Amino acid sequence: MATQTVAIKAMKFDPPTIEIQAGDSVQWKNEMGMAHTSTSNDGTSWDTGDIAGNTTSEAKSPPARGSYPYHCSIHPNMKGTVVVK
Amino acid sequence: MTIDHVGHPAWSLVSRLPHKPFASTLSVLAVLLAHAVHAPAQLINCPPPVDLAKQSLPEIVSANGLLRGLVVLSDAQESFQIGTKNGNATCVPQLLRFYQDHELKPPDPNNAMAPLPGPTLRAKIGDIVELTFLNQIDPLDYGNSLDLGKCDSTSSGYPQSAGDTMPNCFHGSSTGNIHFHGTHTSPTSTGDDVFVMVRPSPRKDGHPTITATSVQKDFDAFFTDCEKKLKDPLEQWPKIWADLPPDYTDQQKDLLTKYEKALWDENEVKIHAGEWPQYYIGAFPYCFVLPKYGHIVPGLGGAPPGLRMGQAPGTHWYHAHKHGSTALNVSNGMAGAFIIEGDEYDGKLNAFYNQYRTNKVTEWTRQQPTLVVNQLGTTPSLERGAGTGPPPFSVNGQQQPPLTMYPGQVQLWRIVNASPISGFYLSGLPEGFTWRQTAQDGVQFDDQNYQKRAQRPVFVAPGNRVDLLVRAPDKASGVPFPVLVVQGVSVSQAETSTPGTVLFSVVLAGSGPVMPLMPHAPPRPSFLHDIKPAEVGGHTRTIVFETTGAGTGKSQHTIDGVKFSEGKPLEIKPLNTAEEWTVENKTVRPLIDHPFHIHVNPFQVTEVFDPNAPLLDSHGVPVGKDQLYVVSTTEPQLKPGQCWLNPNDKATWKPCNTSPRTTYPPEMTNIWWDVFPIPSGISATADSGKIIIPGYFKMRSRFVDYRGSYVLHCHILAHEDRGMMVEVDLDVKNAVPMEHH
């Protein structure tokens, strides 16, 4: 059960696509001053809620294998993908 | 159809072929809904790219004080770019609606037309505008968006899926009209009257029966009368139905009765009340004045006419404005530039730059490129629903076209953001270019703003115009210079993003006289002096824009908590007063800086509060990753330039006076706008719980010269179509409410 980290910087998710193993989780480290979210596009898999500037979200585990595109609900141009192997 | 996060239709990039086999409009709608066939894209050759500096857009040019011409709303297959393959643009034939300065010619079977903006209208201050407007689109090409007095419906569940109801839903896109955006003129009758709705001409043997020839005699007589009446620029004529030629009104009564008797009945109610009827078929005569401040009319008595304002010379524009179909029609391309020339702007620019011309016949300003930016959409009947996101930007109908300058040349770029969807943030031009902004929304800067805002980034919201004097580097280059922008609807988000969208590319080639940037801007016309607090005299009000439910498929866009309501106007009176408004935005998720637009009278922005703003340096460039405001209920440690935003203390919800964006130095005057993006709000936690701290701007405006009903609205036009609009009644009370069927 590992947790991997996606950074949020310069209005982008870094890396934009992250691969994890089933059962692992992802957390988002907001390295910017403004709030962001990580919200799965399907609307059900996860939503971190607001991640305040310079804080890290709770770890989230997508429910099954597959590809999960997500976005920031405050800044919808920010997009990323979690791939569960 | 789907509604995306900012509430606009998610456009499909699939070609659609015309359907014309039906007689009954109702049966067309039913059949098309049942057979929403997705035709495979048929690739065709794209037209070769045209240099924006040499592109000759059609123009209607005024002469002898009259801007007289023909504006025809037509539809045809156009060559629509859907992408790029192996470095070459790929196009499909696409049915689009557009304005032209002539009636539709027989199509060339071998070539689809390139999509172009409508003809550029080029008038002078003081002119009378006389436009014969014809609606000659074939409604059977748009079976899913007919004028049936109800919302368009799609197989994917719209309007129920979005929670939309009449009149705040997508509907009636075959109806045509024109909003003359940026004009200070009468909003009534044949002026800038967006309540006028012109249905398409009847057709016989596939051709419209109402033509330029068929209405010429009546309209010529009307325009002759209009010229006499509008010699007094404050005269709001025509006033009543009987002011129009009787042959025309008789024909309209006959046509409307046959088309839909209820529409004529509604016209009759208006006519009997002495008010201007809203419904027409096939043709409408636009006639209004572009008032010249200080204009004195010989023979009308000794006193001057008493204009409080005049028309500002500058880059204005025109576009479709039928509530319910503004987004769809403008994204089809129903928009064009309206350049209003005046001695105090064009005259002064020409006095400085004419000496550098190689073409000595035409004034320098008339040789400069007009750049109409749009996001052309491809679902004219709203019947498709692929979520491909907003379309790419085009400039004069082309994606990423070239624009040639010679080394050392200065050009005046008149940029119109006609997009109904997105703004763009121009943080700068390529290295070696220098530039000065000379005007905002068609109103020239005075010298103080010209100097202070030199080389500054600019956010061009939907509906905004900017005039830029741009000087090319002195040395030629073998590679084009892309003009990069950030596409978006939030200024704060754009400021912190890396520009990655190419608007067009500058090619340096050729040679000519080396030109300087004009060292000083000419003075603004005197009627554009700042509105001081004493002039406002305590007349204030607050209005609140808000989007809720984004991401649910049922986003709702409201002003003061409600959608547009017929017969519930915002009342301003008496005429010739100034007011100060606080325009708030409580939208927080996503950030949408709704572009506030009000017709007829421009406004001055005096204060901006953007709680999401980044910390900027004096050049408008973000400083590191820091925010301008630190949101906290306890006093935080602030970095230089930051301010404390305390959710518990409304007194702190105000501009941080250290920011170059939210304040203007005291030596600057206030800029005039007719569209301004309202900063989004921010979520915060107060002792009382979760709250929204709204963003806002304050503006002052003179509501002067012309009584009448018009509108204010969000210029993300799908928001307007879906209800983010308010009728404004300036010193009038309509006995019969305006309708939007």
Q: What is the element string of chain A, with H for helices and E for strands?
A: EEEEEEE
Terminal CA distance of chain A reads 13 Å
In the CATH hierarchy, the architecture of the domain at 39-100 and 116-352 in chain B is: Sandwich
The averaged pLDDT of chain B comes out at 88
**Could you give the count of β-strands of chain B?**
42
Uncertain runs of chain A are none
Helix proportion of chain A:
under 10%
- Please indicate the percent range of residues of chain B in DSSP E strands (runs of 2 or more): 25-35%
- Number of E strands of chain A: 7
The N- and C-terminal alpha carbons of chain B lie at a distance of 21 Å
Number of helices, where a helix is a run of at least 4 consecutive DSSP H or I residues of chain A: 0
SS content category of chain B: alpha+beta
Query: If classified by CATH, what would the architecture of chain A be?
Result: Sandwich
Structural class of chain A: mainly beta
- What number of structural domains do the residues of chain A give? 1
Major β-sheet annotation of chain B: 6 strands, mixed
Entry summary:
The complex is a heterodimer of chains A (85) and B (741). With 85 residues, chain A is mainly β. In chain A, 0% of the residues lie in helices and 40% in strands.
